[in-house]
Design goal:
Elements lengths: L2 H17 L3 E8 L10 H6 L9 H8 L3 H14 L4 H9 L7 H11 L3 E9 H10 L8 E5 L1 E3 L5 E3 L17 H16 L1 E10 L5 H5 L6 E5 L3 H8 L1 H4 L4 E5 L2 H9 L17 H19 L3
Parallel strand pairs: 1-2, 1-6, 2-3, 6-7, 7-8
Antiparallel strand pairs: 4-5
The structure holds magnesium ion and zinc ion.
Pfam families: Put_Phosphatase
Family: Belongs to the HAD-like hydrolase superfamily. PHOSPHO family.
GO molecular function, one term: metal ion binding
Length: 298
């Protein structure tokens, strides 16, 4: 970006900040497989293949940990076996929730005024299908996952969410920590929304990266008996987790724990009035943050 273009972008962004008063809110970010739904959406759909149907390519990809490419190969085989789109969608809709999660999501979104997002290594077709079937689509502000669609021949095509090599804790197609950080920064810079507390709810090893980036006022919510909890407890001193750790067994249990938190007993802190000195300092802070963003290559 040329310096003229970037200073124009900064000016525009600062101007838009002036129009919106800052809001303080709470965010809950959810993994999907084994967190909201009780199974792995990918393996449930893979199991629609007759057991004898596989390919050398599928073996190679799974052995080299190329999960997204492996699933693309599984979707090709499903198409070859003429497994119809409707059967795949029915299968996804039939996956049970982790007990209490439908209620938890509705309660957080509708009663407690949380912003909710999903960050998942499944794909957009599976997640949209399941959420729609459970009347939860309008509870989520955003869903970050591998984009997918059925093409005109009925084959499910899936692409990587992004390509990254910076984070060694995460797969090349999805660093959940990066997604969460970007979301929180974007909400602040573009919509003047600041999160007093961020809850990250997950179960797996790919949920470690986002919680290690959380602040001391945030909550890392790990499913009891699953890989995320085991990893966090085993490496507790080495990992330097700043967030509070909540271990949950079900959506009911997590809701009880959240409702008992002293941090959630009051409404979020009042918004900063832009006309006050505090508001002006806040505006200057945001302007320099935007200028920093405009300069750094993304
Ligand atoms: Mg999971
Ligand atoms: Zn990562």
């Amino acid at each position: 970006m040329s310096s003229n273009a970037s200073s124009a972008a900064v000016a525009a962004a600062v101007a838009s900040c002036r129009l919106e008063k800052q809001q303080r809110r709470r965010l809950a970010a959810f993994d999907f497989d084994h967190t909201i739904v009780s199974q792995n959406t990918d393996t449930v759909v893979r199991d629609l293949l007759p057991t004898e149907v596989t390919s050398a390519r599928a073996h190679e990809l799974v052995e080299n940990d190329c999960w997204t490419e492996y699933m693309a190969e599984v979707f090709r085989l499903l198409h070859e076996q003429q497994v119809p789109e409707a059967r795949i969608r029915d299968t996804i809709r039939g996956i049970p929730e982790v007990p209490g999660f439908v209620r938890l999501i509705k309660h957080l979104a509708k009663r407690m005024n949380f912003d909710l997002i999903i960050i998942s290594d499944s794909n957009s077709v599976f997640i949209d299908e399941w959420l729609r079937a459970h009347n939860l689509s309008d509870c989520f502000l955003a869903i970050f996952t591998n984009p997918a669609e059925f093409d005109e021949t009925g084959r499910l095509q899936v692409r990587a969410h992004h390509q990254q090599t910076d984070c060694k804790l995460s797969a090349s197609n999805l660093c959940k920590g990066r997604v969460l950080e970007h979301f929180v920064i974007e909400q602040d810079l573009r919509r003047s929304i600041r999160y007093d507390h961020v809850f990250y709810v997950g179960d797996g090893n790919n949920d470690i990266c986002p919680v290690l980036r959380q602040r001391a006022c945030d909550f890392a919510c790990a499913r009891q008996g699953f890989a995320m909890e085991k990893h966090l407890l085993r490496n507790r001193s080495k990992l330097k987790l700043r967030a509070h750790l909540l271990i949950w067994k079900s959506g009911f249990d997590l809701m009880d724990q959240m409702l008992a938190l002293p941090q959630l007993q009051t409404a979020p802190a009042n918004q900063v009035e832009l006309e006050t000195p505090e508001g002006q300092a806040e505006l200057a802070r945001r302007a320099s943050a935007i200028a920093g963003q405009a300069k750094s290559p993304t």
